[in-house]
Design a protein that fits this description.
8 strands, globular, disordered N terminus
Amino acid sequence: MRRKGKRNPESKTKTLIGFEFEKPISELELKITELRDLSARERLDLSSEIASLEEKLDQKRKEIYAHLTPWQRIQIARHIDRPYTLDYINMLMDDFKELHGDRRFADDPAIVAGLGLFEGRKVMVIGHQKGRNVKERTFRRFGMPNPEGYRKAIRLMKLAERFGVPIITFVDTPGAFPGVGAEERGQAEAIASNLEEMSLLKVPVIVVVIGEGGSGGALGIGVGNRVLILEYAYYSVISPEGCAAILWKDGAEAPRAANALKLTGKDLVKFGVVDDIVPEPLGGAHNDYELMCKNLRDALKKALNRFEGMSEDEIADDRYNRFRKLGVVVNGV
């Protein structure tokens, strides 16, 4: 069954964990709250003053979110209340059945996968899952998969291919898990193998970057016929902090690195790395789960319908040609 609701019921309100650049918004919200309390307490008619402040609040919110820097967008992409893979599965999919294990070593809770119905159509859904509280995040390793997570993912993709089932992946990870055990069990090989195997799949693969799209950890389930990105999500070869530490030996230079990496949706569409940007509610997906899911549902339907009537070879060729176009350099005369 789909779970409906505007936001995660266990989350705090956004203003309690807001961003520095949202201070003007928070200040106006506080003034409106104070006026409403005063109106109720003193039985005063302050409706015109409240309406004026609400109009100012709306304008200020639009102004701020129309001019976000790449670093500010990254902060939104990492918001703790942002919908994660399981939230989208619960609200977009019917009859979801989670499947476990890579049949080699173990199950990896950092990647959630299973079969479900999307708008009456059977799909295989695979995505990173971060977790919200300390216990969940430790269990899920902040959405950073081990090799067995990627091997589980490709096992289920091959299963979907066998039965002609389209695949939807939700990307939301700072990167693959960098632990010693992960390296000992072949982290790089697992990701590389997924890149090869995904490129050859005979069913449509729709990739959605819903939050963080970090390095090979994201690309390990990111080789799709269509790659979508949410408005405030990012997709990058490295995190801004990692880039800053390498180039300037100072993680505090992350905002500078974010500008240089060209990791926002507009830049990625321009370079052909992603195909479409999925609009988010004003202020980010965490402000209105229902609207975010509506926008994403429409985008997924459009992406899947594009492959109706295409043969298996045409679908595989479409994906291959899409990625072959990336990084093409034309030398001027």
